[in-house]
Amino acid sequence: MPWVKRGIKRLIPRVIWQPHPPIAQTLAEIGAARPLLDLGAGGRQISPHTWGVDLQPVSATAVMADIESLPFASATVAGVFCTGALEHTAEPDRVLDEILRVLRPGGVAHLEVPFMQPYHADPVDFWRWTLPGLRKLASRHGLEEIRSGTHLGPTAAMNELVIAYWRSWFRNRYMRAVVDIVLSCLIWPLRYLDALLPRDSELMPSGVFFVGRKPSPPRADAGGCPGGGDG
Which tens digit of pLDDT belongs to each residue from 108-123? Predict the structure, then answer.
């Protein structure tokens, strides 16, 4: 996903904003453990020690790969970030399988997905999740929840949907671009309202997140007998 804006798009103000970015907290919790992966990094680098994984050779891409088939050995990675990418993959369950495979026991997965967002192809757009739906997806693949919640609030959702609505009136891509620029410049200050809204609201967040841990295998009881008897 192209997180880094280029060309004239850099001049268009963002209409979304994170009052409480969860990535920074997850990085702090992981601490000095290495390596870390950012799946679908799209040109960004969330920390100096994080490897960006992407199909496109954009800036900060350390590894070119399909996130449904990661070129890393099993149980070797301390943390995996996958934000704004799961909706663009045809098989999100395969991505979760790969995340669990490469994570070492006790490793952390950080997922961020859209809920109330317009269609945004990159190159296609397949899925949306509620917070309970994301929790179910993660737990089905064996992740034990550390925390979860909203990472993009209702105002972000409203701003993006308003722009998408007015863009839908036009077929011409240049007219759509004009609508995007004009409305973004008009409504971007509203994004700060999300700082005033309850953080736990599940009614219409733009996006939700889940942070989970790969469980460690059960430890054998050193004092027990193989057969379970008293012998």
Answer: 999 999 999 999 998 9
Residue 172 is assigned to a structural domain of this protein? no
Q: How does pLDDT run across 148-180, given as a tens digit for each residue? A: 999 999 999 999 999 999 999 999 999 999 999
Q: DSSP string spanning 69-127? A: S--S-TT-EEEEEEES-GGGSS-HHHHHHHHHHHEEEEEEEEEEEESS-----SS----
H/E segment holding residue 38: strand 36-39
Token pair in block for residue 87 = 């909706």
pTM: 0.90
Q: Is residue 13 part of a domain?
A: no
Number of domains comprising the chain: 1
Above pLDDT 90, what percent of the chain? 79
Range of the domain at 102: 19-153+199-213
Which CATH number fits the domain that encloses residue 139?
Answer: 3.40.50.150
Counting every residue, how long is the chain? Answer: 231
For the chain, give the mean pLDDT.
Answer: 91
10 Å CB burial of residue 225 (0-12, 13-18, 19+) is exposed
